[in-house]
Write a structure and sequence with these properties.
alpha/beta, 45% helix, 2 domains, Helicase, Ruva Protein, domain 3, 3-stranded antiparallel sheet, two-stranded parallel ribbon
Length: 159
């Protein structure tokens, strides 16, 4: 990105403002102009020139044993690079650790069978995508209720 003075903006930091939103800070060293951009990690990937970890993702990494840390960092960065991702968030660390796969809890598996067959495949895809975006290792009934409420405004009290 370029500033109004035609110099390149340098990224100075990136933070997760919510599980679905990332805030990036840019600065022009020439004129001192600063700029912030907020969006999903997918939207900001193209604005970031190189792999950049959020503080939340770095914290998760720092909690690993020292002998595992460089291996996990490399694994996550390779996983992100293979997908064209430059922003490494907490959720993306989880997704990389799960190799892009999610499991289904037994209760969630039973409940998905109650979904009408015409939309079951779409529901399964959306639930797995949401779990992966959040770095969750499995689809749970709680996630199903949340997605149901978001799309249909009708969460039930059932567990």
């Amino acid at each position: 990105m370029q500033c109004g003075c035609h110099c390149s903006l340098r990224i100075t930091g990136i933070e997760e403002s919510s599980p679905a939103s990332v805030f990036a800070k840019f600065h022009c060293d020439q004129c001192g102009f600063s700029l912030g951009a907020e969006g999903s990690d997918k939207e900001l990937d193209s604005m970031v020139p190189h792999t950049l970890w959020t503080d939340e993702a770095l914290y998760q990494l720092s909690r690993l044993p020292p002998y595992v840390l460089p291996l996990v960092r490399e694994e996550v960065e390779e996983f992100a690079a293979d997908r064209g991702q430059r922003v490494v968030t907490f959720a993306r660390v989880g997704s990389a650790r799960n190799r892009g796969m999610v499991e289904w809890s037994p209760d969630a598996e039973r409940r998905i069978n109650n979904v009408p067959s015409g939309i079951r495949a779409m529901a399964r895809i959306e639930l797995e995508r949401t779990a992966m975006d959040r770095g969750m290792p499995e689809v749970t009934v709680a996630l199903m209720e949340e997605v149901k409420a978001r799309y249909f405004g009708m969460a039930s009290g059932r567990a």
